[in-house]
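Last lecture ended with a question: if I hand you only a sequence, what can you say about the shape of the protein? Today we answer it with a concrete record. The protein is Ketoreductase (KR) domain-containing protein. Below, first the input exactly as provided, then the predicted structure, then a couple of comments.
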Amino acid sequence: MAGSQGTIIITGAGGGLGTAITAHLAAAHPDYHVMLLVRDAAAPSAALQSAVQGKLRSYEFASVDLCRLASVREFAAATAT
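The predicted structure:
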């Protein structure tokens, strides 16, 4: 689902820097759809959840292991629409 302004993909969203970037984007650009790439989308950190809940109009978590090319390819194939 694309937001009215487009889609932003944040890799490493579960880390400290990724969470800080996500919080900044949520405050500055709440109308974008944000895809948050983490290692385990079923268990995002409380800090990351707090950065997006009620602040972004549209977001989703995706499990992607950037150290595994197959994982990156699976994500790319699933989102290339």
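Comments.
1. The first helix runs from residue 16 to 28.
2. Strands lie at 7-10, 33-38, 58-63.
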